[in-house]
Design brief:
It is a single chain. The chain is of the alpha/beta class and about 260 residues long. Helix content is about 35%, strand content about 25%. The protein is built from 9 helices and 10 strands. It has helices at about 60-70, 90-100, 115-125, 130-145, 160-170, 190-205, 215-225, 240-245, 250-260, and strands at about 20-30, 35-45, 50-55, 75-80, 85, 100-105, 180, 210-215, 225-230, 235-240. Helix 3 packs across helix 4 (about 130-145), helix 3 (about 115-125) runs parallel beside helix 5 (about 160-170) and helix 4 packs across helix 5 (about 160-170). It binds adenosine-5'-diphosphate (ADP) and magnesium ion (MG). Magnesium ion binds near residues 61, 62 and 182.
């Protein structure tokens, strides 16, 4: 396997996992109409964990993480996020969405708003943060993702890698306790993948709880404490990265790894 050159050392010493539970999913099932898309999902995520979710296209990875911030409704079982049980109660959904940040493959920035406005919109309108304070926070996170100088531009004027870093900064402005990533680098040109992964590594080093759907196995090896393999709506196997890559247990995992590595 080619080890992804991240361009800097990854400091694992700061990436500590606590005993506190961030997400708990118990016997969860979901259907799209008659299609049983997620089957008996059981997953506990401790605070500080960095989990990579891998698996073939159509295996349910996106649907699983979308259930965690209630972008999709589940029909059976229980999902508890940060102590809040996910139900169709809209109040809960607002609470969960403000604690769980999500970054998508296609950055989903608002094209008619500046970078700064993209970052301040939700804090001002959802969190009722005063504009001035929201702008200060936005600049803080734009500095963190290393593009403060782009604040007054529009998304269309930025590269894909820059837009994705804005999307990450925008999420962080809501001060989430958990970050979900759904193939954040899949739409990027190769030379821009690294800058986004570096941003994600930095977040991991700061102790953020992260669930990342990604095909970047170099990232998984360096940053994840656990890799989860999904196939046909099920969690087939999970392990720490070294074991997962060097000693896969199921035939489906072996086949998948032989195709991507
Ligand atoms: P992955 O992210 O692993 O590629 P998804 O979670 O996107 O998989 O999709 C899992 C399965 O559910 C696929 O077969 C997909 O076609 C189907 N699916 C996803 N979203 C919907 C939807 N809104 N309605 C019906 N089927 C869907
Ligand atoms: Mg997907």
């Amino acid at each position: 396997m080619s080890e992804l050159a991240m361009g800097r050392e990854v400091d694992r010493s700061k990436m500590t996992v606590s005993d506190e539970v961030a997400v708990e999913i118990t016997n969860m099932n979901k259907w799209f109409g008659t299609f049983h898309v997620l089957r008996d999902i059981n997953l506990t995520v401790q605070r500080g964990e960095r989990i990579v979710i891998a698996g073939p296209s159509g295996s349910g990875k996106s649907t699983l993480i979308r259930c965690i911030n209630a972008l999709e409704e589940h029909q059976q079982g229980r999902i508890v996020v940060d102590g809040t049980v996910l139900s169709s109660d809209l109040k809960n959904i607002d609470k969960i969405r403000s604690e769980v940040g999500m970054v998508f493959q296609h950055f989903n920035l608002f094209p008619h708003l500046t970078i700064l406005e993209n970052c301040t919109l939700a804090p001002i309108w959802v969190r009722k943060t005063p504009k001035r304070e929201a702008e200060e926070t936005a600049m803080h996170f734009l500095e963190k993702v290393k593009i403060p100088e782009q604040a007054d531009k529009y998304p269309g004027q930025l590269s894909g890698g820059q837009q994705q870093r804005v999307a990450i900064a925008r999420s962080l402005c809501m001060r989430p306790r958990i970050m979900l990533f759904d193939e954040p680098t899949s739409a990027l040109d190769p030379e821009m993948i690294k800058e986004v992964l570096d941003t994600m590594i930095q977040l991991a080093e700061e102790g953020m709880t992260m669930l990342c759907v990604t095909h970047e196995m170099g990232f998984a090896r360096q940053v994840a404490n656990r890799v989860i393999f999904m196939d046909q709506g099920q969690i087939v196997e999970q392990n720490e990265p070294e074991e997962f890559f060097n000693n896969p247990q199921s035939e489906r995992t072996k086949l998948f790894l032989s195709q991507i590595l």
